[in-house]
Amino acid sequence: xxxxxxxxxxxxxxxxxxxxxxxxxxxxxxxxxxxxxxxxxxxxxxxxxxxxxxxxxxxxxxxxxxxxxxxxxxxxxxxxxxxxxxxxxxxxxxxxxxxxxxxxxxxxxxxxxxxxxxxxxxxxxxxxxxxxxxxxxxxxxxxxxxxxxxxxxxxxxxxxxxxxxxxxxxxxxxxxxxxxxxxxxxxxxxxxxxxxxxxxxxxxxxxxxxxxxxxxxxxxxxxxxxxxxxxxxxxxxxxxxxxxxxxxxxxxxxxxxxxxxxxxxxxxxxxxxxxxxxxxxxxxxxxxxxxxxxxxxxxxxxxxxxxxxxxxxxxxxxxxxxxxx
Length: 325
Description:
- By secondary structure, the chain is of the alpha+beta class.
- The protein is 22% helix and 27% strand.
- It has helices at residues 30-38, 103-110, 126-129, 135-152, 227-239, 288-297, 308-317, and strands at 43-47, 51-57, 60-63, 66-67, 75-81, 87-92, 123-125, 165-167, 172-174, 181-182, 187-195, 201-205, 217-220, 243-254, 259-268, 282-286.
- Strand 14 and strand 15 form a beta hairpin.
- The two termini are 27 Å apart.
């Protein structure tokens, strides 16, 4: 089965959704930012080390969005404006901090028992609820988590070591000593499903994963390297297989902490494995029948549906599969 970029991926990339205008032109407008913050319609997502408050009911989930009057103190980042003109911000603050206004606790205590599942934890992250959130909430949380991850590791100037200051609605950090500006960074990573001339796909397990947990191959793009060359290099380094005809299929942010996953399919021109033991514990070729049987039996568990890896596997297979990590 030949897979082409025109066919597209089977199902949406769940962390690539958004329903806001990022409003880049407004980030430097200090007066507008203050007016937006004072607007009672403006809403805030509080983010703490990749976590946020989520209200879950059955198979759906929604972010707990606060009015600015109830938001805790912390660095604030403009996320954008929706089609109704409502502005959204993220605030970086401890979710369990008992010293702020207590608004988060009031909201949690106001939830009806029917809104929570047995043993439900309200503080959660993208991996757990990304597939349950709607387009607006998914986009807001991915954006907030990504910005918070960058800010938390760039508090000091890499040139002189001085503490930097947040500007432009959270999209720049400026060094007050040398005037240098530092912008949020994204690390591009290729992720690829390799298939061979016998119509099999390649899945592998990292040494840190438990047995049965398999996925496609992935790796970071190196300086001065094209995406296509990164695909071929990573596959050769990790499993010793040579590939040709890399075809780009789609991308989605993966803010753990700041990756952008660029999905590819590629055809193997060799099939013998030479594994890098530091990267790969085992690798296997699967026909469609073999993969279906392995997932049904529980022998193989696949990445969660929020990942682009799952979309690549299911697109190759031709329909959804069961057996999440």
